[in-house]
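Let us work through a complete example step by step.
Step 1: write down the sequence.
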Amino acid sequence: MTRLIGGSAVESGYYVNVRSLAVVSLPADGRLPGSLGDEFVRVPWPLLLAAAPLVGGALLLAYPALGLATMAVGLVRRVAGATGRGVRDLAATVAAGQAVGEAHLTGKRGKGQPVRRREIEDLENEVARRRERGERK
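Step 2: predict the structure and record it as tokens.
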């Protein structure tokens, strides 16, 4: 079977997209739908006629299993969501509170006067001079 690329000029007939398994019917000669990334295979109509009941039967057999799997995933998500909310509520209750304006993770308190760097002192002097002159910015 020859693989054809989307947009190719082909004869009338039935073509199946290899990736999506979508069947394309071309009643007259023309171009295949899709882009260069789509691949098609020409399939004779008797093969499609025979494949239709087989695909339907496979879906009929798989449908209950898909339903049960969907239900199981929904239950797991519901239980996990309820458990996650409980854990968050417990963590909020146990966590230490913070006072407004309180600083955390600042290190140990120093003894005596803090050490000032020369640049900070120069900047403070510059600000004081400008304030005395009444300058802004």
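Step 3: interpret the result. Helices lie at 45-94, 118-133.
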